[in-house]
Design brief:
The protein has 161 residues and is an alpha+beta fold. It contains 6 helices and 5 strands; from the N terminus they run H-H-H-E-E-E-H-E-E-H-H. 26% of the residues are buried. The structure holds zinc ion.
Length: 161
């Protein structure tokens, strides 16, 4: 009986909590989402602001399932993640009017993934000549406040559909 009940639970509720992306996946309630900058929860993935952004509006699209190998990703989930990337790009265009985007994934730690064992997709707004963004961010020194401001603006657009 216990096994059957567990089998009915979504994958992300049965996973160990040693993964920050899983911890966010398992979070419940609007307060949790606000504190963790979760912008949207879909069926298979959620959208969250990167807490250490390369640029204002840097988002991550994260599958609920803890999967580290790209070839194991489910097609339905992948479709939703592409849809969410489109919504993210749409929202970022409206707010920041960027000149371009980076969209993609770093696969494995050697590929640059910070959470190498839980695949996620980045959407980063880009501007011509923004390559010294780290310096800019370091000089601003108000990232938490800027992050919450970014969050409120983008979330509004996501909730409006
Ligand atoms: Zn995980």
């Amino acid at each position: 009986m216990n096994f059957l009940q567990n089998a009915d639970e979504p994958d992300h509720l049965r996973l160990p909590s040693s993964c920050v992306l899983c911890d966010i996946a398992k979070g419940i309630g609007p307060e949790f989402d606000t504190e963790n900058y979760v912008l949207f929860r879909g069926r298979f993935c959620y959208v969250v602001l990167n807490a250490f952004p390369y640029a204002a509006g840097h988002m991550m699209i994260v599958p609920y399932a803890h999967e580290g190998d790209f070839v194991n990703l489910d097609s339905t989930m992948l479709l939703e993640s592409i849809d969410l990337a489109r919504a993210a790009i749409d929202a970022l265009r409206e707010i920041y009017n960027p000149e371009g985007f980076n969209f993609g994934a770093n696969l494995g730690r050697a590929g640059g993934a910070a959470f190498g064992d839980h695949i996620h997709f980045h959407v980063v707004p880009r501007w011509l000549g923004d390559t010294n963004f780290m310096t800019t961010l370091a000089n601003v020194r108000v990232i938490p406040e800027a992050l919450s401001q970014t969050y409120m603006r983008i979330r509004e657009l996501f909730q409006a559909g």
